[in-house]
Amino acid sequence: MRSLRPAVYVPLILSGLFALVVAPRLLAGQWDASQARQAAAEGRYAQAAEYYALAAARLPWRADLWEPAGRAALSGGDAAEARRLLEEARSRAALSTEGLVALGDAYQQTGDLEAALTAWQAAFSAGNPSAELYGRLAGAYYLLGDKAAEEDALRGWLLYQPGDAAGHYRLGLLLTISSPQDALSELVFASRLDPEYDPVVQTLRTGLNLSLLESDPAGQFVISGRALALVQEWELAADAFRRAAQADPESAVAWAWLGEAQQHLGGDGSSELARALELDPDSVLVRSLRGLYWQRQGETARALAEFQAAAALEPENPAWQAALGDIYAQSGDLPPALAAYQRAVELEPESSLYWRLLAVFCVQHSVQLVEVGLPAAQKAVQFAADDPRALDVLGWVYLDLNQLDEAEKRLSRALKIAPELASAHLHLAMLYLRNGQQALAYDHLLRARDLSGGDLVGQQAQQMLDQFFR
Q1: CA atoms within 13 A of residue 343's CA, in its CB half-sphere
Q2: In angstroms, rounded to a whole number, what is the distance separating the alpha carbons of residues 279 and 460?
Q3: 264, 249, 184: which is closest to 218 by C-alpha?
Q4: Do residues 430 and 397 lie in contact, with contact meaning Cβ atoms separated by under 8 Å?
């Protein structure tokens, strides 16, 4: 019998090798892919990612498996693994637009915002933008401080989500600087969608209307910045003041407000305030903002000098007398502090504010509480009967005078008007402790601490909680 030629053996050998080597890998890879799909459908994302990665390794021609592996890892909370798998998909040119968005998410979750933005921009450039993509871009631009790009991304977001009050509000804030004539419509629309924005929008509306009446660009930016500062949007306010200083480098007001904004953003601001003083040493605004700066630094002598200069420039302005009273009190010089507060109420005798400040000084420092403090607190309520802060101070004075029934009436009234007033909760807690009503005192101390935002009231509440309820 004649033997087979060598050429006949080759296909048979290759077929045998495929059966022995390749077929098991193919079958295992297909099984892994099937298990991955099942795990993903059941919400077992970590296992799904492992199975997809195994399948992709066993089936090297299936580059499309790397992306679902990465997306499963991301859904399972393993951003680092998702990043690795999605980068593998990208290196094999097998990353879809949705995969680019997921890669950006993985970068963001692992702390690389720049890389995240690059991935999201690539997804945007690939076409078919979505609300989610616009939202991611807007958030990234916000964190990176690119306000023009954030504005564009917000416009895109609002095309998909026209009823998003927060989006309209944020766009209105940005337009307050870049296009004030267009800002108001966005802000008003935000307040219509969510009435909680209305008080802030009313403040901004006043500032915008005033800024649009200003012909000087620097002055317009200063007014817009001050409106933003009033609603605690200090980053945008700083941008407005910076633009004002660029528009008019000789504007002491712009430099002074920029220095103030820098402090609210965690900076120093002293160089801007020094520049403002150099430009206009006779500006009351410059002097007062410098006084605040030195007060925050604990430099009471320097703060006092600045407020004395402001008071000399505007001797009929009670605000500077109150500021002087505060500085004197901080330095422990109580007689001139009392005189300054009394001078403030003499200058504006029908203002609840200055009567209240006088009463607060008296009760804080136990200075002539019966002769001056109580009448001042009563005057404060007389001129503002529904002001919860005035009622709180009157209640506090009565508490210190041990007139507990009168104190409880005022403090309860203050909290009925303003349930979130932390200081009234603190004073009512002190009253209940004095009456032996521990449970009521505890509840109000917790409220005072949680509502205070960590200020002096909150610190006092925590100290009392530690002292009486440990």
Answers
A1: 19
A2: 42
A3: 249
A4: no
Question: Could you tell me if 32 and 54 are in contact, meaning their C-beta atoms sit under 8 angstroms apart?
Answer: yes
The alpha-carbon radius of gyration of the chain (Å, integer) is: 33
Residues 6+ apart with CB under 8 A from 341: 321, 322, 325, 354, 357, 358, 361
Q: For residue 26, how many other CB atoms are within 10 A of its CB?
A: 13
Q: Decide: 115 and 106 in contact? Cβ < 8 Å.
A: no
Amino acid at 49: A
Question: How many other C-beta atoms lie within 10 A of the C-beta of residue 119?
Answer: 26
- Nearest C-alpha neighbor of 411 from the set 357, 456, 448: 448
pLDDT (tens digit, 9 = 90+) per residue, 166-213?
999 999 999 999 999 899 999 999 999 999 999 999 999 999 999 999
Give the pLDDT of residue 40. 84
Lowest-confidence segment of 10-19, 22-31, 71-80, 448-457 by average pLDDT? 10-19
For the chain, the farthest-separated pair of C-alpha atoms sits apart, in whole angstroms, at 134
d(CA 52, CA 39) in angstroms, rounded, equals: 10
Rounded distance between C-alpha atoms, residue 125 and residue 134, angstroms: 12
Nearest-angstrom CA–CA distance, 328 and 310: 15
Residue-wise DSSP of 17-86:
HIIIIIHHHHHHHHHHHHHHHHHHHTT-HHHHHHHHHHHHHH-TT-GGGHHHHHHHHHHTT-HHHHHHHH
Between CA 340 and CA 362 the distance in angstroms is: 12
| CA gap 299, 100 in Å, rounded | 53
| Residue 72 neighbours by CB distance under 10 Å | 28
119: which 2 tokens? Answer: 């991935």
286 Cβ neighbours under 8 A, 6+ residues apart: 252, 253, 256, 273, 276, 277, 280
pLDDT per residue over 357-401, tens digit each? 999 999 999 999 999 999 999 999 999 999 999 999 999 999 999
The whole-angstrom separation of Cα 85 and Cα 105 is 13
Closest CA to 165 of 117, 135, 203, 197: 197
Q: Encode 147-165: b = buried (16+ Cβ within 10 Å), e = exposed.
A: bebbbbbbebbbeeeeebb
Neighbouring residues of 460: CB distance < 8 A, sequence distance ≥ 6: 426, 448
pLDDT higher than threshold 70 for residue 298: yes
The encoded tokens of residue 75 equal 């859904």
Whether the CB-CB separation of 201 and 187 falls below 8 Å is answered with yes
